[in-house]
Amino acid sequence: MPFVTIDLLRGKPPEYLEAVSEAVHEALVEGLGMFPDDRFQVINQLAPGELVFSRDFRGGPRSDDFMVFTITDGLDRGEKAKQAFYRALTRNLSENPGVRPADVFVKMHVTPPVNFSFADGVPATETTAREALDRAAAVPGTRDAYTRTEMVEAITRMFRDNDRGRIVSMLRDHFVLKMPTSMPYGGEFRGAKEFDDYFKRVVEQGNGYYETFVTSLRRLIEADDHLIAEISITAKGRTTQQSMDIENAWVFDIAGGNFVSAQIYADTATGMKTAG
Question: Whose CB has fewer CB within 10 Å in the chain, the N or C terminal residue?
Answer without folding.
Answer: C
